[in-house]
Amino acid sequence: MKPVIVRGGGDLATGTIHRLCRSGYPVIILETEQPSAIRRKVSFCEAVYEGRMTVEGITCRLAKDWREAQRTVSPRSPVLLVDPLGDILREYHPDVLIDAILAKRNMGTRRDMGNLTIALGPGFTAGEDAHYVIETMRGHDLGRIISRGSAVPNTGIPGIIEGYGKERVIHAGGTGRFSPLAGIGEWVEKDRLIGKIQNNAGDSKTWIPVRASISGVVRGMIREGFPVTEGFKIADIDPREDAVQYCDTISDKARCIAGSVLELVCAWEKGDAGRYGRFCEGEKK
């Protein structure tokens, strides 16, 4: 099978990539020049900055171009290529294309870009933008395979953990470059200063403080020096006392979504994807 193409390398995308790789599928990831994942310890997109990223025993490496990506990719060894617009898809037609950008809107993916095209989350309509859409909203339907229609629209409210929902996520209070004062995996008390946003001129008098919204473990935080705008998501706090063990492992949500993607890919390979309600162009026989 030709390499699976996955657009996006954040934490939810990484769960899917990891599952595909462990199941024997070669995966090439297409990412932006400056990924903004906050759960960086479980996001293959960190390879853009570090050259490589290992998540639960699978190491992703950055390729300098498409030729290198094709030459070095193999099962259990995914490769990342900086290609934010998916330009390579103009000349390469994959068997399987997965849009896992999770931008809550379609960033240019079309159903005909792959023989089997799968999109994660809202912003897509199954049968139009993609062959199938996977529900990403926590709850009873998480991971549901949608053959007609769309996922639940984005609510902007994260899943509830110990009674906390939107309070868990911290957004930038202004524009500038972010400087962390706490690390991922660190316990912080509510209102503690965990970072600051400095204006581009470097004037310390205009720093914007970033404080912990609740007490808990910093499960995610954007990279040092990342340019943020007001309202930009920059950190995530988990109120559970034992949450430090979850910082560098794939989440239950990501694993659930990954299972549905793998199910579709396996069914398509066996020529049986039609059981989900829609025949895929190019389905294997």
UniProtKB/TrEMBL annotation:
Name under which the protein is recorded: Xanthine dehydrogenase accessory factor
Domain of life: Bacteria
